[in-house]
Amino acid sequence: MDAEEKENEPSEYRTVDLIKSDFYQAIKGINRGIFGVQSARKSEIEELVELLKSQNPTPDAALHLEKVGGCWKLVYSTITILGAKRTKLGLRHFLTLRDIYQSIDVTQAKAINVVEFDVRGLSLLNGQLTIEATFKIASKSRVDICYEKSTITPDQLRNVLWRKHDLLLSIFNPEGWLDVSYVDDTMMIGRDDKGNTFVLERSE
Hints:
It is found in: Plastid. By secondary structure, this protein is α+β, with helices and mostly antiparallel strands. It contains 6 helices and 8 strands, in the order H-H-H-E-H-E-E-E-E-H-H-E-E-E. Helix content is 26%, strand content 36%. Helix 2 runs antiparallel to helix 3. The longest helix has 16 residues, at 39-54.
């Protein structure tokens, strides 16, 4: 199938694997969308996300938490860090935002978010922000999330970021609720009470 045929293929005939392939192609080079996405690209991504959600194999995800448990890596989000906020955090010239993970322990009803940072030219300062939360089932597809605590490690990175801790939490704190609108063996899509969309892939 050439590119034109693929583009003209009716949405209802596209398999989940094909939609995922198109999604991963669409998010190439945008750093998970955190530093902004051009509107045409964003519309394409959102359309693919909606297509996946329409084929959700686990519509009552909160009642099947075994599907949700484990470690996930963020591949796309509508959370954005732009302008003065990005400058204040040092994410233009000083810090590099690396991988963002979420580990979900179903038996303990706990979720741990890990945001990794590199400090340019100073590997000794490389580290992470860890945010711990608990959750409880609110409906068939929704969980309520309660923030517990956060830490920055190692100490050297904490000394750099401690004045920006509240700003980091305002961006990455998961407290509120989360609707799981798609989950299978390799991908999960959620939307929080702030209107943000998250797409994660299962990670080791």
